[in-house]
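Annex B. Sample input.
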Amino acid sequence: MNYKQLGNTDLNISNLSFGTWAIGGAWGKVNDTESLKGLDRAMELGVNFFDTADVYGDGHAEELLAKATKGKESEIHIASKFCRAGDINDPKNYSEEQVRTYLDNTLRRLNRDTLDLYQIHCPPLEILKDGSVFDVLEKLKAEGKIRYYGVSVETVEEGLYVLENSGASALQVIFNMFRQKPLEELFPRAMEKGVGILARVPLASGLLTGKFSKDTTFEEDDHRRFNKDGQAFNVGETFAGLEFNKGVELSRELEWIAEGRGNMTKAALKWILEQEAVTSVIPGFRNVKQVEDNLGALDVKDYTEEELSRLVRFYEEKVKDHIRGAY
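Annex B, continued. Sample output.
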């Protein structure tokens, strides 16, 4: 396991960590026993950072993390997110009173007194431009209720605004082989500003595992079914904004990345791990096998310059024009 400093913080986190949306809910059936075994295995293999949110299973993911990390609170860093349990467009949702309520509930579920990283959960740009929520977060930081704060963003524009107009220590962005836009301007600027990058949706909701066909179906409570066209939230969170059949078609053209790297999952994660600006990539998981497979990316061979150039061309020529929604 390798560890990287998260921006200008004193947090050194595993460069391959895990998100907990899948074990909280909205990815089909969950099994808490398997989820806890997966968390234990991840920590056993050196993972010391987990990303969660108050809306992942209505707090269930946070409760699972509390169980898994009991007695290890000083060793295992946790990031959570807030705002999507309310109306994300209402300024009152970001008031000091409301944010304190969100945070207190998260800390209670996590059974912690302080949160390592508190992130605004994909707010509208207008809320970021208002700026008052950053004042609230600075106050909570000064009080010691949170150590650092960040923002999970949907678009490069939002990310750049946060970098220039806040004291955020981290940006969480959608980033994978199908979503390479952050490489152009956002990542270089984040490095200049000393802001850490957390790469989410690294496998494009499973497209980059290579396991799907156009006949693949998903359970009714899986966002890959109910949000496949952005019906519930930003379309980019599901299949990186690609229409499913097109995503399957494009994933077939990437099967070559698995050569000498075990499988597409490891290869897709390895590509992200090689990006200098990325502090940690945070794939999801539902069981021990998925944890071990994801962590296998740490040991596969690097990409050659020729392969990296091929992937850039692939994105520019075949992918970017098919991504839906602002990004």
